[in-house]
Amino acid sequence: MIDVIESLAEILNSKDVEWEIYWESGRRGSFKIERETLERSQRKFYSGIGLRVGIDGKMGFSYITGLHHPTSELERFVERTIKLAKVSRVQFKGFPAPSSVPEVRGIYDRKIEEIPFEEAHALALQYAERMRELREKETISGALALEFERYGVVNSNGIEFDGASTYMAVSAYAVRKDRPGNGSFYQSYRSLQGVEVLEEAIRKAKKDAELSAMADKLDPYSGELVLEPEAVSSIVGILVENLYGDEVYYGRSRFSRFGEFVASGSFTLVDDSTLEGLPGSYPFDGEGTPGQRTTLIEKGVLKGFLLDHTYAALLELESTGNAVRSFRTIPSIGPSNLIVEPGEESLEDFEGVVIKNVFGEHTANPVSGDFSLPVALGYVVKNGELHPFKDNMLVGNIFDLLKTAEPGKETRRISSFMSPRVRVDAKIV
Amino acid sequence: MDIERLMRISEELARKHGVEYYEIRLVSFRSTELSMSNGQLKRLSMNSERGIGARAFNGIWGFSSANDVERFEKAIETAMKIAKLSKGDSRIHTGDPVVDDAEIGVKKPFTEVDVEEKLRILEETDSMLLADNIVNRNVYYSDWLVETFYFNSLGSEIRTVVPRIRFGFSVTAKENGEMQQYWKSFGGTLGWEMVEDVDLPHWTSTVVEKAKELLRASSPPSGEFPVIADPELAGLFIHEALGHAVEADLVKNGDSILAGKLGQKIAVDGLTVVDDPTLPGKFGSYIYDDEGIKAKRVEIIRDGVLVNYLNDRETAQYFGLEPNGHGRAQSYAHQPLVRMGNTYVEAGDWSFEEMLEEVKYGLYMIGDKGGQVDTANGTFTFGAREGYIIENGELREMVRDVALSGKILDVLKSIRAIGKDVRIEYPGYCGKGQSVPVDDGGPHILTKALVGGLK
Q: How many Å lie between the alpha carbon of B349 and the closest alpha carbon of chain A?
C-alpha cells in the first residue's frame, strides 16, 4: 500500500465508521495530427483519492486530488466526509467483502508505462509521415493516445486490491477534397502497437471516405437489412441503459424481471470484464468486486442486469462487478466489454442493404425504444459490388428490431464492443 | 499555491527551453452536487479542487496538466519540453498583455446557501412530481464556482471568478406497456436566485402532464416536411446546423462544409445568427476565454451572409480574423478548442399564428432532445421532446420521439419564416471531445427537414 493510503486507513480505523478508499494515479499522453501535421502534443498527470464513509445506513462521499498530503490534511478530509455522511440521506448498503479476484491477462504493458515522451512523440511523427505517404484525394487527420494508471481499493471489510492498466488509442479521419465524403476509424488496445496498426487505421478511414464520396441518398426501403458491427454498437448502446441495475430499481428501465423474451432466439448479449487484453477488462471493479462474465440476454431471454454493490443489495441480487468510477465520483453502473455472441450463419457475403455507421444515438428514446438515426454510410451489395449511400435515416424501435435480430458468424471488435454483422428487419427513409 | 513563484519559474523555464509563448491557468473550484430519484437521495457531494494547465507554443502546442500541487512545476516544464521537442510552423495571434480582475456577480451566492436548503428544494420538487402513472421521478441540482488565474508570456494576468448553477427534473410515465419521459432544466451563470425564481408548480405539472400525454401520442410520419421549430429547438437547430461548422478549428482542418465560404450568401435573407458569451446570466456566458481573450458578441451570419468564424488565437491568425474569444477548455486539464457560448437566431417579423397558416401539412416540434452534426459531410440530426401534426394551418394530434435530419446548406436556404419571439434560456452541454456549458435559442422558425418516423 502506498504511504498516503496507509496513513488514511489508519485514521479511518480509529473512527467508528465503515469506509472505503478508491485511489488513482496516472499519466495520459496524446498527440493530435491535423491534415498530416502533428499539431498538439500533451502529457497530463493526475492523481487523487475518493473516500466513502457509511454511518447508520447513510453514506458520505468526498475526494481530494493528489497523493501527497500531510496527516493534518488527511484528518480534515476524514472529518469532512464523516460530516457529510451524517447530514446526507444517501442510502448506505455496506461495502463488498473480500473475495478472490480472477487473473486477467494482457491489461498492462510495461512498455507503455515506461515509454519516454521522445519515443511516443517519434511514433506520432511516424504516424503523420504515413498519412502524408498514403493520402490521395483526401486530407488525413488523427490522434494517438497512451495512458498508464495505477489504482486501488481498500475498505473496512478487509478488501485491499491494487492494479495497473495501460491503454493505447488510435484514431484516423479522412476528408475528401473533391466532393463531400469522410471516413473515420477508432480502435483501442491495452499494449503498445506498432506502425502497421497506424497504417491500417489510415487505410480504413480512407476507404470509408471514398465510399462516402460516392454515396447518394437511397430510395426509402423497408425490410431485411444487415447492420455492420459499428451500427450494432449504436443500437446496443441505446438498449443497454435498460439493463443498468439503478435504472431498473428506479423504474426507468423497460425491463423489470428475468425470463422475459426481449430478443430473437438467436440473440445473446454478454458483459465480460475478464477477457484477455480488451479495453474494458479488469480483475476487480471500482468497489473491489471481482470481474466476471455476466449473461444479460441469452437466446432472446432476459437473464441479468449490470450491477454494483448498492443496487445489487437494493434489488436483492449479487453485484456483477460493474461499478465504474474515478476518484472524483461514487461508483456508477456501466458495462465492461459488451459482446454480441456470433450465430451459425455467415453474413459476410450478404447481398442487399447494409448499414455501416449511424449517428445521433442520444436523440433516441431508450424506454419507448423508438429511434431515427441518420445513416453516415451504408451500401447496397449487388453481385458482390458495393453501391454506397448516406443521408437517409434508419428508423425503428429497438425492442421490435431485436426480436428480428440474427447475428452472423464472424465477430469484429470495436474497442470494448464485439459483434458480428447482424441481420434485422428495419426501415430506411 | 504561490502564484508569484510559479510566474517566475515559468519565465526562467521558457528562457531555458527557448519557448516563444506560454500560457498557464491556475484553477480552483468548489462544487456541490445533489440528485434524487423517487424521493431517495442518490448523490450528495461537496468538493473542491485545484489544478494547473500549462501550454507552450513553438509553432505547435505542447500541453501538460496536474492536480497534485507537488507536480505543478513539473507540468510547466513538461509543456515547455514538449513544445521545444516538437517545433512546428503554425503561428498564433499574441496581441497586447491584459491585466484584469473580473467576477460574474450574483444576487445570492449559492456558496452561502446551506446544503440543507438545497436538499429541501429537491424534496419539495420531488413531492410535486408525484402523480398516477409516473413510475420515476428525478431531481438534480449542482453548482460550481470556478476561480481562474491566467497568465502568459506577454505579461497578461487575469483573475476571473465564474459561478454556474443548474437545476432540473424529469419523470417517466408508464401505462399499458408504453413508457415516455419528459424533463425541464434551468441553468445559468447565476446564484441561488435562479432556483428561487423557478415557478415550481407550473413546471412540475407541465413535466408530469406532458409525459402522460406522450403515452397516447403516436409515432410521426416519415419523409420530408415543413417543420416549425419552437425557440428551444430553433436554438438546437442553429447550434447543430451552423454553430459547429463555423468553429474555425474545424474549418482550418478541412472538416467543415463552410470552409472557403466567408462573405458568401449561405442562408435566406433576414437570417442573422449570433454567438454572444457576454449575455448576462446565461449558462454559456464567460468573461474571458481560456486563452485570456475577452469574450465578445460575434455575428456569424448577417442577413444570410456568412460573416465570421468563431475562433481562438491560432485560427484567428490563420484566417486573418480579429480574435473573438471562443477558445474554451472543459477544465484546467484540457487544452482550449474553438467552442460556442450562447448561440441564437435573431428575431424576424413573423408571428407564430402567421407561420402556422403557411403550413398545409407539416410538424410543429418542441424542445431539445440532443443533436449531432457531421460537419464535413454537412449533415445534422436532432431530436424533439414532443411534436404536433399541422394540417391546413391548425395544430392536430401530438406525436412522440421525433428526430429530424437535414443538410446544412439546404436547410439554411429553406427557412421560410423567422418569428419575433426570441428566447435564449435552454442551458445544456456541448460535446466536442470535451464538454462545455452552452446556451442557445431563437424565435420560432419555419423550415423543412427529413423526419424519421415509424408511420
A: 31
